[in-house]
Amino acid sequence: MQPEDTLGLDPIKLSRITNWMNAHVHDGRLSGLAVQIFRRGKICFSERAGFADAKSKRPVLPDTIWRIYSMTKPVTSLALLMLYEEGAFQLDQPVCDFLPDFANPQVWKGPGHTLNETEPADRGITIHDLLTHQAGIVYGDPQGNELERALSDSGLDFDRGLTTMAEAVEVLASFPLAFQPGDRWFYGLSTDVLGHLIEVISGQPLGEFLKTRIFDPLGMVDTGFAVSADKSGRLATLYDRAPGGFVASDDQKGFIAPVTLESGGGGLLSTMDDYQRFATMLLRRGRCDGGRLLGRKAFDLMVCNHMGGDLASRGQAHFSETTFEGVGFGLGVSVMLDPARAKIIGSPGEFAWGGMASTAFWVDPIEEMTVILMTQLIPSSAYTLRRELRVLSYQALAD
Questions:
Q1: Angle, CA 101 vertex, CA 158 and CA 329 arms, to 5°
Q2: Is residue 290 domain-resident?
Q3: Total structural domains in the chain?
Q4: Which residues pair with 34 in a beta bridge?
Q5: CA dist 399 to 190, 240, 364, Å?
Q6: Are 328 and 334 in contact (CB under 8 A)?
Q7: Are residues 281 and 346 in the same domain?
Q8: Does the N-terminal or the C-terminal CB of the chain have fewer CB atoms within 10 Å?
Q9: Which residue intervals define the domain Beta-lactamase-related in the entry (predicted)?
């Protein structure tokens, strides 16, 4: 569907996005996908291709429900900043003021040392450290170093054993940090800690807080940590990349209600329309039809760079959610600093994030534009979908 009013985008060039989508399905790289572009207050491109389930040939529809994984992080970060505006905490406040398990953290001496070989942290972990992934908290990885393997073995992949985030955070706090707080940027479980912090401060389960404070005001009726039985037929199948194409993932039921472990770092499901409502609010600097979710000064703080440079000077080199040259990081989102250094089309000040199953979104205030990609292929590094779509979206600008 291409609306008659394309709001400064060339309809012929927009058709290149449709061709690109169809090619990914036809060539067996993706089962299905959806792309939507919003500009100057209206949707100007919304297309779907392929199947929500390849085996049954169930098509991708406007109400298809997608696992958005780490696109949960901007939602959780915004929710926490809403509490910040209410005076619940300061950004430089130690998180142990609210989560005592993180008092007196120890720092692992690194590969080649046992996990018992640690040194005291130079300082405590702050809430700002968690918002900016500078806390020393990493993800588990069964193929990683000793610490990453141990985190995975303990159930902190959230695929077994643990039943609540309170329990998960307690387990996480028993492990040493990967590096001194504030020393570098390294993507990990920090936003999951923030999700539990919201529960402690608000006295509500995270899902309830997000529903009452964000989803209901925005009209996001299909977004949450679980899919109810009456909506389960709309859930897209999750796929893993395989030689010559893709195969259905072993984990298809982790999001079916009831879900008790509500991951603020990666647990949400959503539809294109719902996430568009969230992205539109971000484009409007925190405003929604009913007023504001976040004040404009707090919002501007969220989407500015907190790194003092780009991620190439602060972070790890092997993570694929974003490029590192020319890109910084704010409070829960990446921030474009210099498209020339990033070697990709974009605008300074544009902010973004993506998810493990190759979903992505970005918001470009200069172009008054948002772009959302929904699909379900793990890992997100399987193809350069995000960079390809970025070029295709911007090449269509005609004004």
A1: 65
A2: yes
A3: 2
A4: 48, 374
A5: 41, 39, 15
A6: yes
A7: yes
A8: C
A9: 19-380
Instruction: Tell me how far apart the alpha carbons of residues 77 and 87 are, in angstroms, rounded to a whole number.
Output: 16
Euclidean distance between CA atoms 238 and 227, whole angstroms: 14
Q: Are 146 and 84 found together in one domain?
A: yes
Do 231 and 355 reside in the same domain of the chain? yes
Structure tokens, 124? 């405590």
For 35-64, give one letter per residue: b (16+ CB within 10 A) or e.
Answer: bbbbbeeebbbbbbbbbbbbeeebebeeeb
Tokens 């992080």 locate to 73
Q: CA 307, CA 305: separation in Å to the nearest integer?
A: 6
Closest CA to 72 of 284, 304, 245, 264: 264
Q: How many CA atoms lie within 13 A of 308 on its CB side?
A: 8
Question: Does 268 reside within a domain?
Answer: yes
Rounded to two decimals, the pTM is 0.96
Residue range of the domain that includes 85 = 78-202
Q: How many residues does the chain have?
A: 399
**258: preceding bond cis by omega (within 30 degrees):** yes
Residue 108's φ and ψ, nearest 5 degrees, are: -65, 145
For the segment 233-288, what is each residue's pLDDT rounded down to a tens digit? 999 999 999 999 999 998 776 788 899 999 999 999 999 999 999 999 999 999 99
